[in-house]
Amino acid sequence: MNKTGVLKDKRYLDHDMGAYHPESPQRLEVIYDMLEESDMKGLFIDIPARKAKREELELIHSSEYIDLIASSEGKDLMYLDGDTRTSAGSYSAALLAAGGFCEAVSMVWSGKLKNAFGLVRPPGHHAERSRAMGFCIFNNIAIGARYAQKYLGLKRIVIIDWDLHHGNGTQHSFEDDPSILYFSTHQYPFYPGTGSYNEIGTGKGEGFTINVPLSPGFGNGDFIAIFERMLKPVALEFKPDMILVSAGFDIYEKDPLGGMKVTPEGFAGIARSIMNIADACCDGKMVIALEGGYHIRGQRDSVKSVLKELAAEQGTSIANLMKKVDKAMVDFALKPVMEIHKRYWKCL
Ligand SMILES: [Zn+2]
């Protein structure tokens, strides 16, 4: 029996930041249409979206900030920052994204599902405790991680963030916490400005924030090599109870905002690399949240490829993809990260 869950809800389309905004309802519309195609239909178990409760949001966000977002309900455009706005349906959509993601985590943890993909909007990884940023309102992945610890009893969680941009909000949520390991690859220097390799966490959390800043031009094999060489040994040493993934499809080769070169097959390979880690340490338990991705067709094809990998409909060979690695570029990116982290991780 197939045990891959998909979280989808038409109300995620009600968050609309205006014509010409790259983070558009159309991003999900085409993905939801894709799920109805003959080779996808019936492959996945539906995860019911639900609104996040106040106390769940407050695991990550301040009360004043939640009130501010709540006040946008039913109103036309309200500007939260230079590129993040709300529409009448945004508050509901944001509640359903965070709450739906918690539900996905819960269903995977209980064993009803092996893994899951939250096809949600608005995205979350830039959202800070008291501030919307970079198209993000509530930090879905951070809320899901804390929810898993507080309500489901998980101890250690790995959050992997392969979005083009650094997940500043997620990092800041857990930087002093050794129970949540945050691992991010991102174009750098770039929006939002954070994510240098020497941001390694603070206090007791030192060593549990791992940033791999990248110049543009990284492709399929390069990303997989980084995950295999750096993430895999560290994650196996950390021994998480579950893996959460901030999946950004803005590292797609034709994304209008990014300079990376990942193809749909490459995304499946990246997912496979993470699935192998999850199989080795937490019975395959893994939940993905959709973050960025602005090439509408490319994101759709890439999400499809990842979903098929999750459902074991295809077995992408990471060895094949790793035949095309720019070793010099990967070595250059990993060297300072390994150097700074070897004092925290025996495997390095
Ligand atoms: Zn992004």
Structure description:
This protein is α/β, with parallel strands linked by helices and 348 residues long. It has eleven helices and ten strands. The strands form two sheets. Strands 2-1-5-10-9-6-7-8 form an eight-stranded parallel beta sheet, sandwiched between helices. The longest helix has 20 residues, at 90-109. It is globular and about 50 Å long. Bound molecules: zinc ion. Residues 163-165, 248, 250, 291-292 line the site of zinc ion.
Uncertain spans, ≥5 residues at pLDDT below 50? none
Oligomer: single chain
Proportion in β-strands: 5-15%
Number of helices: 11
Global geometry: globular
State the order of secondary-structure elements, H for helix, E for strand. EHEHHEEHEHEHEEHEHEHHH
Small-molecule binders here are: zinc ion
Task: Find the structural class using helix and strand composition.
Answer: alpha/beta
Give the strand tally: 10
| Major sheet summary line | 8 strands, parallel
Helix content: 25-40%
How are the strands ordered across the major sheet?
2-1-5-10-9-6-7-8
* Alpha carbon gap, first and last residue: 38 Å
Estimated radius of gyration: 18 Å
Mean pLDDT score: 97
